């Protein structure tokens, strides 16, 4: 799902509404973040995107042990980003950025979302998203790989 990065102290309220679909291993939802005075930008970690590609450093045997039905990717898709303020609602631009190669060196694309906000304005950021969790034989249910 979405993790607000480095600006949580600036938000007055953070809310998450989500629906789980066990058939296709997805969580779809809406995150809202209210600001008394919005910063110029907000950053979000899209951690599920770290699992979009198989680990090229693991043997096929290790991948088979983790994914009993073959590699099964995880991902987060941003469906819409809105700003609600002054009685209006408008679509906001956002940019998907790669994660730095800190904990792994593969599947780094689209790991960070940067949203441009109306700096200083009071309002609510609304993000509609869908996240998929893989079917694995390890870890706890709902764990990302």
Structure description:
- It is built from 1 helix and 9 strands.
- The chain is mainly beta.
- It has a single domain (2-132), classed as Immunoglobulin-like, CATH 2.60.40.
- The strands form 2 sheets. Strands 2-3-9-5-6 form a 5-stranded antiparallel sheet, with no helix packed on it. Strands 1-4-8-7 form a 4-stranded antiparallel sheet, with no helix packed on it.
- The two termini are 14 Å apart.
- The model has no long low-confidence stretch (mean pLDDT 86).
Helix/strand layout:
Blueprint lengths: L1 E4 L5 E11 L4 E10 L5 E6 L13 H7 L8 E11 L2 E4 L2 E4 L14 E5 L6 E10 L13
Order of helical and strand elements: EEEEHEEEEE
Mean pLDDT: 86
Q: Describe the largest sheet.
A: 5 strands, antiparallel
Please state the CA-atom Rg, rounded to the nearest Å.
17 Å
Count of discrete structural domains? 1
Q: Can you name the CATH architecture?
A: Sandwich
At the first level of CATH, the class is: Mainly Beta
Uncertain runs: none
Q: State the end-to-end CA separation.
A: 14 Å
Q: Fraction of residues in helices?
A: under 10%
The number of strands is: 9
* Physical arrangement of strands within the biggest beta sheet: 2-3-9-5-6
Shape descriptor: elongated
Number of helices: 1
Give me the CATH fold name: Immunoglobulin-like
What structural class is derived from the secondary structure elements?
A: mainly beta
Strand content: 35-45%
């Amino acid at each position: 799902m979405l993790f607000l990065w480095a600006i949580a102290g600036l938000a007055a309220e953070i809310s998450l509404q989500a629906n789980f679909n066990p058939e296709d291993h997805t969580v779809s939802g809406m995150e809202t973040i209210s600001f008394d005075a919005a910063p110029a930008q907000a950053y979000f970690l899209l951690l599920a995107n770290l699992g979009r590609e198989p680990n090229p450093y693991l043997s096929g045997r290790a991948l088979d042990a983790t994914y009993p039905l073959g590699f099964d990717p995880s991902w987060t898709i941003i469906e819409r980003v809105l700003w609600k303020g002054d009685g209006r609602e408008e679509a906001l631009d956002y940019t998907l950025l790669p994660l730095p190669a800190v904990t792994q060196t593969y599947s780094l694309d689209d790991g960070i979302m940067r949203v441009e906000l109306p700096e200083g304005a009071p309002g609510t950021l609304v993000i509609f998203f869908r996240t998929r969790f893989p079917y694995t034989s390890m870890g706890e249910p709902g764990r990302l790989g």
